[in-house]
What does this fold into?
Amino acid sequence: MTQSTAYTTLESTVYASKSIADCKVLVVDDEQSSCLLIATILSDIVHCDTLHDPTNVVVYCENQPPDLILLDINMPGINGIELCHLLKNNHKTSACPVLFITGDGNADTQNQCWQAGASDYIRKPVVASTLVHRVKNLLQSKLRLDLLTELTFKDQLTLLYNRYYLFTEIPTLLKRLSRDGKSLGVIMLDIDYFKGFNDRYGHVAGDKCLFEVAQTLKEHLPRPQDSIVRYGGEEFTVFLPDIPLKAAGCLVKAWWRLCGNWPLLMKPVRWESSPSAPVTW
Ligand SMILES: [Mg+2]
It folds into this structure.
């Protein structure tokens, strides 16, 4: 298979960030025997977690997002269709596909499943082969979509978010924060005289330097909801939802102190020669 063909079909493992075996499936069913049966059938292809109490599912998925949810319908507390609506209306869990597994074959029930956002539907008692192949197909589609999303929103040199992410996702974040009466901290970072670095050490070293800077900034982001965009060549923008101004200032100072530990970056141009102050806000 040529590289261009692999790229077009997205089937080559070269482009896959993870395989089906690395995926995590969550089985939600109030009957322990049913959970055990499903987990046993799928044990050869994927890792399964099980939950018997449907009221815990949303919080569980927010904290440790699965790649696929297998959902029963008739459960005490909240039924599977109501739960699916909750998952699909939550921005942290909406991207996870839901496969209903139920003994309820009623046509109205099936329609309610699709309207709630189901990706697929299987009747109990399950046929092992059908369950395995449906799960494999759904996970493969999920992995391809994840990969396409990553290629769309990530800068391939630094692996940070790109400008397309900035212009499509940040406005949505702003709207959500505005609705909740919260602020958005924004920090812009720029490496002065980076052209001088490229001229002296070459663009391969320059790319390596940008990657190292980007990874260091990313590793020192304080919270999972914070994000960094590569705004331009050597310019970065950091987005910090609902953060006090003082805390954002402390973060900038901490990053600046880290600069002293980047020998590659500091070789050609000392910050004292920069026309701007090292840190301003
Ligand atoms: Mg049940």
User: Anything to note?
Assistant: The mean pLDDT is 86.
